[in-house]
Write a structure and sequence with these properties.
5 strands, Rossmann fold, alpha/beta, 2 domains
């Protein structure tokens, strides 16, 4: 049995290259997101080259960017009575199969780029399970209260 050959970026179609460049131009600061998009595009490039349907219907343009991003405040009172205000996010990618589904993340290191990367991958994770769900991800930036185990029940409920 022969070893499968890897598909190199320079061998991919102009359509895949175009979409990759579009994302890099729009979001140059979002490294994690760009990496996730490029990995998918270039690994599936042979499929996109063989099937004109993907380009004709602009499938990649519809998949690689979120349908919606909501950024909001999360005010809560900590154990000593001080009001804390954190940033929350909810990203929804491609609801073609159904409503957005994805987890929540509470951590100080959360960025929009990481959430877009996770939400993008959630689309394919959900699709491969056969569930009629789109991909989504949510988060609240916790400063520095990322670990709910170290908090009281009141603080955890407030979050």
């Amino acid at each position: 049995m022969s070893k499968p050959t890897l598909y190199r970026k320079e061998e991919s179609s102009s359509y895949v290259q175009e979409i990759s460049q579009m994302i890099k131009r729009k979001y140059p600061w979002e490294r994690e997101y760009i990496q996730a998009v490029d990995e998918l595009l270039f690994s599936l490039s042979p499929l996109f080259d063989q099937e004109p349907f993907y380009q004709d219907e602009r499938i990649l343009e519809r998949i690689v960017e979120p349908e919606r991003i909501v950024i909001f405040r999360v005010p809560w009172r900590d154990d000593i009575g001080t009001i804390q205000v954190n940033t929350g996010y909810r990203i929804g990618f491609n609801s073609a199969l159904g409503p957005y589904k994805g987890g929540l993340r509470f951590h100080a290191s959360v960025t929009l780029s990481i959430l877009k990367f996770l939400g993008f991958e959630q689309v394919f994770k959900n699709a491969l399970t056969g569930l009629s769900l789109g991909g989504g991800k949510g988060a609240a930036i916790s400063i520095p209260v990322a670990n709910p185990i170290s908090k009281s029940k009141i603080s955890v409920r407030a979050l």
